[in-house]
Amino acid sequence: MPKSVTLDRFDHALLAQVQVNNQLPARELAERVGLSESAVLRRLRRLRQDGIITADISVVHPAVLGAPLTMHVLVSLEREGSAALDAFTRKLRNRPEVRQAWYVTGDADFVLLLRLASMEAYEAFTRDVFHDDPNVRAFRTIIAMREVVGAGDAKPMGVVG
C-alpha cells in the first residue's frame, strides 16, 4: 500500500497517460499534461518511489510464451489462520503459472489467474498445489474461451482530476 500522498491534477493527468501507455517519451507526456519534460520525469520518479506506480511492465501475448490457456480458479481453504494463509501465499508466489492472485471475501478464499500450456499442465498444477495440500478444501475452475477486453484495451482507472 502506498504511503499517503497528495496528488494534484498534473499527477492525475500523468497517471492517466501511463496507465494506457507507459512507453510515451517524456517530451510527449509533457505536451499532453502541460508540464516541462524535467517536471514530468521528477513526478514520475516520485510516483514510483511513493508506491503509486507499482510496476512498469510489458504485457506479452500468452500464446507466444507457450501458455495459451487462461483459467480463473476459486480456492477455498480449510483454515485461514495467519500461518496457513502465509504458507498458501508462498506456494502461489513460487508457481510461474500463477499470474495474479487475490485473497478475497465470499464463498472462496482466493481467486487465481493462471496461464498454462495445456489441460495436462493444469492437471499437474492441481495435483501439486491443490490435491497435495490438506488445507485446500475445494477449488472451482473457470476456463476462458477468449479474451474480450485485455490489458492492451486499458482505460485509465481511478484517476480523477
TrEMBL record:
- Can you give the residue ranges of the HTH asnC-type domain? 7-68
Q: Which PROSITE patterns match?
A: HTH_ASNC_1, HTH_ASNC_2
SMART domains cross-referenced by the UniProt entry: HTH_ASNC
Question: From which domain of life does this come?
Answer: Bacteria
Pfam families named in the record: AsnC_trans_reg, HTH_24
Assigned keywords, A-Z: DNA-binding, Transcription, Transcription regulation
Q: Report the SUPFAM superfamilies cross-referenced here.
A: Dimeric alpha+beta barrel, Winged helix' DNA-binding domain
Keyword DNA-binding in record? yes
Could you tell me what this protein is called? Lrp/AsnC family transcriptional regulator
